[in-house]
Write a structure and sequence with these properties.
By secondary structure, the protein is an alpha/beta fold. The longest helix is centred in the N-terminal third of the chain and has 24 residues. The protein has seven helices and five strands. The model has no long low-confidence stretch (mean pLDDT 91). The two termini are 14 Å apart. It has one domain: P-loop containing nucleotide triphosphate hydrolases (Rossmann fold, 3-Layer(aba) Sandwich). Helix content is 51%, strand content 12%.
Length: 173
C-alpha cells in the first residue's frame, strides 16, 4: 500500500493507524530521512531534497525485501511522478499489487498542522515559503501512474476511516 499526499495532510498518522489495524509493517520516509539528518546533517533545503530522494530509494529497497519475502507493507511519503519507475520496479520484481491512498484535508487545516507541528530540525520547515506551503495544501489528488486501486482519504473527517477500511479489506481478499 502506498500512502501519499502533501506535507501535513495526515499521511503518517493514517499509515500508523492502518499498520495497527491491518497488522502490516509501515515504512515512513521521514523515519529514514531523519536518521540521515542525524548522521549527515542538513544545512539547507537543497541538501534536504537530496536526502529525501535517498530516503525514497532506501524505503523502496526495504519494501522490496518485505515483498520478496511474501510480506505486505505500507510505504508512506510524499511520493511524486518521478518515483513511478522506482515503485513500478518494486511491484514488478516482487509481483506485488499496489493500492494508493491519497491523504488530504482542508487547506487551512494543512497549513495549521504544518505551522504548529514539531519535527526534526533537519526538515527545515521554517524555511518553506508561505506561498509554497499554500500551494501544497491545495493540491488535488495526484495519483501515480501505477496499476491498482486508488482511494482518497480526508484526514480531517474521521468518519471516512471505516469506509476506507472496508475498501482495503475488499481489495485484499
Amino acid at each position: 500500500m502506498i500512502i501519499l499526499g502533501s506535507p501535513a495532510s495526515g499521511k503518517t498518522t493514517l499509515a500508523e493507524r492502518l499498520s495497527r489495524d491491518l497488522g502490516l509493517p509501515v515504512l515512513c520516509k521521514d523515519d529514514v530521512k531523519e536518521a540521515l539528518f542525524d548522521v549527515l546533517g542538513c544545512p539547507d533545503r537543497e541538501r534536504s531534497r537530496c536526502l529525501s530522494e535517498a530516503s525514497f530509494h532506501a524505503l523502496a529497497r526495504i519494501a522490496r525485501t518485505q515483498l520478496t519475502l511474501g510480506r505486505s507493507c505500507i510505504v508512506e511519503g510524499n511520493w511524486r511522478a518521478v518515483h513511478v519507475p522506482l515503485l513500478a520496479a518494486l511491484t514488478g520484481e516482487a509481483r506485488a499489487r499496489a493500492a494508493q491512498i491519497w491523504c488530504c484535508a482542508d487547506p487551512g487545516e494543512i497549513v495549521r498542522r504544518f505551522t504548529s507541528r514539531h519535527r526534526h530540525l533537519g526538515h527545515l520547515d521554517r524555511l518553506m515559503p508561505a506561498t509554497e506551503l499554500s500551494a501544497a495544501a491545495q493540491l488535488a489528488p495526484a495519483f501515480l501512474e501505477l496499476t491498482g486501486p486508488r482511494w482518497v482519504y480526508r484526514s480531517d473527517s474521521d468518519p471516512g476511516y471505516p469506509a476506507l477500511m472496508e475498501q482495503i479489506k475488499s481489495w485484499r481478499l
